[in-house]
Amino acid sequence: MNGAILLLLAAAWLVAAYVWYGKKTIQRRLMEPLDGEGTPAVTRNDGVDFCPAHPMVLFGHHFSSIAGAGPIVGPIIAAAAFGWGPALLWPLLGGVFIGAVHDYLALMISVRHGGTSIPDIADRYVSRRARLLFMIFVELALILVVAVFAAITAKMFVTTPEIVIPTFGAIPVAMLFGLFQYRWSGVGGPLWLRTLLAFGALVALIYIGFIAPISLPFTPETAYIAWFVALMIYGYFASVLPVWILLQPRDYISSWVLIAGTLLALIGIAVTHPGMSLALTGDVATAVEGAKLPLFFRWSDPEVGPIVPFLFIIIACGAVSGFHSIIAGGTTSKQLTKEKDAMLVSFGAMLTESLIAVIAVIAAAGALYWVGEGSLTAVMKSASPIGVFGAGFGRFTEFLFGPKVGTLVGITMINIFVMTTLDTTVRLGRFLTVEMAGDAFPLLKRNRHLATLVPIIPAFLLGVSGGWKTVWPVFGAANQLVGALVFIILTSYLYSRGKPIRYTLWATIFMLVMTVGALLFLAYGYLFGGTPQYVLGLISIILVVLAVMMAAEGMKLVTGNHSAKK
Fold this sequence. Notes:
There is one protein chain. By secondary structure, this protein is mainly alpha-helical. It has a single domain, classed as Amino acid/polyamine transporter I. Helices cover 72% and strands 1% of the residues. It has 24 helices and 2 strands. The chain has helices spanning 3-29, 40-43, 55-67, 70-82, 84-111, 118-125, 128-159, 164-182, 191-211, 220-240, 247-272, 307-314, 322-328, 342-365, 376-382, 385-396, 398-401, 403-437, 442-446, 448-465, 468-471, 475-496, 502-528, 534-558; strands at 300-301, 305-306. α3 packs across α11 (247-272). The chain starts with a helix and ends in an 8-residue tail after the last helix. Residues 561-566 have low confidence and may be disordered.
C-alpha cells in the first residue's frame, strides 16, 4: 500500500472526527463552553502560574507538553513487535474515541473547578481516599518522568552533540518571545511575525549546532552527569519563573518545530510514496533482506508480550495517555482564556498527536526495510526507536537535505519536545506538592522554590544513581492506569451532573481491563520468571490494588451508595 495515500486517509479521518465527534458530540452533549463566565486564568491571574494565553500559544504549550517522544517511540515499538497495522489502528481509533475525550474533559473539569488538578477533584466526585491515593501515585509518577526525561536528554547530548546548541539556545529565544508578547506588546509586530522570527532563530540554531557540535571534555559517564545536573537546574528555574516568560513561549515555539517537521514529513511522504507491505503474516527470523514490515505478523512478541493488552500499553501518547490529564489540569487549565478554546487546545492537540503517531509508523515501516543493514530491525537493536524515526525522516527528506542532515533534524525535533515535557512536569510536581501537603505545611504554599525542590531532589537522585531504570519497565502500565483512574473521575462527574456517561464509561472499563491485565501479566513474570525481580513485581501488585480501590470508590457513587459533595 502507498504510504502517502495511507497518510492522506488518516489525516482526513482525524479532521472529520474533530468536527463530528469532538465539536458536535462530546462538546455539545457533555460539557459545552460557558464563555459568559471568566476562566481561572482571568479571574485568578497572578502573572506567575495563572496567565491568560492566546489560544494558539496555549495550543503550542499543551501540544508540546503532551507530545514529547511518546507518539513516536510507542508506535514504532508496537509496529516492530506486531506489524504496522495494529500500530496505526490504535492511534486512529483510540486517539479519537478515548484519548481526545479524556483530554478535553480533563481540561474542562479543571477549568470549572478553579484550575485545580484532577487528583484534587477526585475528592469531590469520588472520595477523600481516592484523592489521597491518586495524588501520591501521580506525584511519584511525575518524579519518575522528570528523572527519565532528563536522563534521556542527557544521554542524547552525549551521543548527538549537534543538538546541544538548538536545545539550550531555544531558552533565550523563548524568553525574548515572552517579553515581546506580554511586556513589550507594542513592539515586534503581530503574533504571526513574532512567531516567524522566533522560528527562524530556532532554524538558525539547528544549523549552528550542526556545524559546531558541543562535546564536553569528559568521559561519557561524567559528561552524562554534567548534562543531567544542568537539566535539573533548568527544570528548577522553569518551574519557579512566571509561566509567560519561559514555559509558555518555549512550548509554543517548540510546537512550530514539530509542526514544521510534520509538514516536511508530509512533503517527503508525498514525494517518495513509501511502500507499505500488505502481507498479513511474516517471520522476522526468515525475512528476506529488503523485505517490508508486514501489516501484521504475530500475536505475541517475546520481549513486549501479547498484543492484548500490551498494544494499548505501549502506545500511550498518540492514542490515550493518563499523563495528558495531569498537564490539562495542571498548567493548561491555568492559561485558558475562554472555554470555547478548550476544544482546539486539548481535543485538537490529541488528534494532532495521533497524526504524529501515523507518521512515525510510516517512517518505520515505509521508509525502512524490515531486515538488513540500516534496516528497522538493525537500527532498533543498535540505537532506539528515536534512531528509527530519525533514519526514516532522513529517507523522506533526503531529496531536500541529504540523509545525514534530515536524520539530525528528525532527532532534534524529538529532543526539543522531550525538553518541553521535562520543564512542564517539574512545574506540575510543584502544583501537586502544594495541593497534597500545602495545608499541613503552609510554607509550601508561600514558597514556590521550596515546593519545587520536593519533586526535583528525588528525581535528581534517581537520575544520577540510575535507579529510574529499576522502576521504568512498569511505567507504561502505570501511565495508562492514570488514564483509567481519570476516566473514573470523569464518569463520576458526568453522573453527578446528570450527563450521559456512555461516552466515558466504556472507556473506563476498557482501560481498567487492559491496564490491570498488563500489570498482572508483568507481576507474574517478575515474581515467578527465570530471574525474579521482586521490586517490580511488588510495584505491579500495588498498582493493581490501587486500580481496584479506585474502581470500587467510583462504583459507590454510580450505585447510589456514595453521593458527590456539593
